[in-house]
Amino acid sequence: MAAKPWEFSISCDSSELGTAVKLALVCGPWGSGTSVVAGQLTRIGVLGVGPYLRTNDPLTPNSYESIPFREIILRYSDELTISLKPHMPGAVQSSIRQFRRWIAREKKRSRDHHDWIFFKYPLAVLFIPEICEIFKTKLIYVERPLAAIEQTRRRRHWPPHLGAAGAVLIYQQMSAVRERHNYPIMIVRYEELLEDPLGHARGLASLTGLNPTRAELDQAAEFVRKPRPACGSGNLRRRGA
């Protein structure tokens, strides 16, 4: 099988690996509202790395899960059991570092000037320290009651590990990271996001230091109020995708 573009060994100079690649990592289980948060991020000026995984849910057809990032995470973890696969020490960091180099090169090639990118995939919580080692990262923890998460899973007809059963493990890992590390974390409670989408859009802007226009903030709020099929499949796309 041919290597993907982000899997090639890439040599970059210091300008390509500069501080421009800052990461907002959206953390939370399936059905917790992470796609809504990711949709807000795109609308206030945070760059997505596409293509994105599509879902069978008409309410959230765009998962905002970067397929290249997801493939890296699944190389070292198992989605069914929400656990790590055996791997060599440093292997995860090496893969993420290589992916970061690809992103930096693509940003330079396309003359993109976004300061921030985001990733979102539930299993990424298993590798938060490794990700934070490679990227200048701020974490966004999305919280929702387990009963509501399970109700969403049943509506989607998804397997059990994509509902409350998996959410328990994801939230345990998120809690452990919070206790052991001092990473910057923004807590988003899904019910509060629905009640005040504009306030949360402003909070995301404050977290990233961005200065979106009022129109962009309104678009981010409207995305929460009236979910609809998300436009686009990512701002940075692999070639040929």
Give the topology, please.
Elements: E1 22-27, H1 34-44, E2 47-48, E3 52-54, E4 62-66, H2 67-75, E5 77-78, E6 83-84, H3 91-109, E7 116-120, H4 128-134, E8 136-143, H5 146-156, H6 164-180, E9 185-189, H7 190-195, H8 197-208, H9 214-225
Parallel strand pairs: 1-7, 1-8, 2-7, 8-9
Antiparallel strand pairs: 3-4, 5-6
Rounded mean pLDDT score: 88
Please tell me how large the radius of gyration is. 17 Å
**How many structural domains?**
1
Q: How would you sum up the global shape?
A: globular
**CATH class membership:** Alpha Beta
Count helical runs: 9
CATH topology: Rossmann fold
Low-pLDDT stretches are 6-19, 228-233, 235-241
What this model shows, in words?
By secondary structure, the chain is α/β, with parallel strands linked by helices. The chain has one domain (23-225): P-loop containing nucleotide triphosphate hydrolases (Rossmann fold, 3-Layer(aba) Sandwich), CATH 3.40.50. 43% of the residues lie in helices and 16% in strands. Strands 2-7-1-8-9 form a five-stranded parallel sheet, sandwiched between helices. It has a two-stranded antiparallel sheet with strand order 3-4.
